[in-house]
Design brief:
Elements (H helix, E strand, L loop, with lengths): L1 H4 L3 H13 L3 E3 L5 E3 L1 H8 L4 H19 L2 E8 L2 E8 L21 H8 L21 H14 L2 E4 L6 E9 L5 E10 H4 L3 H19 L15
Antiparallel strand pairs: 1-2, 3-4, 3-7, 5-6, 6-7
Length: 228
Amino acid sequence: LADECGLPKSTTSRLLTALERTELVERTDDGGYVAGPLFWQYAARHDPWEELARLALPILEAVGDKTGETVNLGVARGERVVHVAQVDARYLLGTRDWTQLEVPPHASSLGKVLYAFGALPMPTGKLEQLTEHTVGTSRDLLNQLGVIRRAGFATTVNELEVGMTGLAAPVRNSRGETIAALGISGPTTRLSDGPESFGRYLVEQAERLTALLARPTHKVRTNKEGAA
């Protein structure tokens, strides 16, 4: 980097430290640098996902009116899930700005949908256990994904945090590729009754968004990395 930019190594080091401190880059175990959380949040809010979020907003609002819960649209960025649009819950209990948080994909319904339908690369080995209910290994996660594909939607109960439930369904492009996940989250006490009906409803709304994106003037094209 110092050679490429024509800067002294000491200056380059100070700049990298500043970028790391502001979460634009992060240090890897081998001493290299990769894009940090703030970079992913910024990138997710600009084309092509800005257009996707704009088109999806009326559907997110309809889901919010129907369920009363927090509604999110998430996309894959590398090995992460980035929330690109949100409609807040009607209730004080359950309202949270997920667009500012990084959630381990294996502990979220959005992430599990993106794993199940091939939008996220599968993790390997042991997984971070956020609660006693969180899936613990990639093998266990893989077993869950078959169930998710058959059902058409994912459910997480007390996996991200105890007392929280999430459900999500896949959003596809005109080629049938999963490019996003539409989901709701809220207290388990409110969502534990009728998860199947919530799941089927989300599948219907995700299919509405898929149909909207299939229109000739509303193409959202992505490659395997989720970039335009």
